[in-house]
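Reproducibility note. Readers wishing to regenerate the assembly model reported in the main text can use the exact inputs given here. Chain order matters: entities are listed in the order in which they were concatenated for prediction.
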Amino acid sequence: MVNAEKERHGGALVLEGVTRRYGHRRGAVQALRGVDVALARGSFTAVMGPSGSGKSTLLQCAVGLDRPTAGSVRIAEKELTRMGRRALTRLRRERVGFVFQSFNLLPALTAEQNVALPLRLAGGATRRARDSAREALARVGLAHRAHRRPAELSGGQQQRVALARALVTEPEVICADEPTGALDPATAEEVLALLRQSVDELGATVLMVTHDPAAAAHADRVLFLANGLLVDEYRGTAEEARSARAGAVTDIARRMRTLTRTGTEVAV
Ligand SMILES: Nc1ncnc2c1ncn2[C@@H]1O[C@H](COP(=O)(O)OP(=O)(O)OP(=O)(O)O)[C@@H](O)[C@H]1O
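Running the prediction on these inputs yields the following structure tokens for the assembly.
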């Protein structure tokens, strides 16, 4: 089987003909216009595109936070578009890890309690959840900060806690929405290296929206969206992605500039 076929059949996440329209008639906006994409297990995919091109909509439809108007979304062979609300909530809790630009940690809980939360919500025993949380915190280099609250941690440390929380359930897909948007470049590099490590060492599957070519260069594949369509794709080798080499950053930035010159929001 060729690669694309393999990804479609064994993919951790498969989107087929995904369309999302907001509003009705004249005021309607076609945010996605039939997107086909399959993410192989243990891969790191970035999504880029001009403002309004549909990146957030794609991410939200991919992980069951929004429902496509048409098309199919499957995570680990499970069709999301036909699921009821409760099943979808459970699938998100068990199969998806989330990392957001604003960290989204609960301020009253310690780092360890924040990381243990998804396991506790899924009904896991306190001690086991705590042990798994400690392990996940150690993985992101924060075992020694387990009892700090978010306000007592730097931005980069908070994002590492969020990453530990995303990893703790060993999800099928990690959905990262501008995970380095609020971080300085050096701290952003640390977080991206950890995301890369999760892919390489734990076999995580990462889907990340970013505006930053330097962040996207850590992915082995970059999808470019314009007007709700996938219009370009960059693929690097895993070796290149591991070092996020300057040539890749330049190539990705050049493709983005081309899109920004031509991509505009379209109302239908
Ligand atoms: N809830 C909504 N109701 C109506 N229109 C929406 C809604 N959400 C998004 N849109 C529209 O859908 C299109 C795609 O939006 P989306 O947020 O996915 O783009 P984006 O690429 O993530 O943009 P940005 O980079 O600015 O965050 C835009 O035209 C946007 O205005």
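We highlight two features of this model. The chain has ten helices and ten strands. Residues 22-23, 29, 31, 49, 51-57, 265 surround adenosine-5'-triphosphate (CB under 6 Å).
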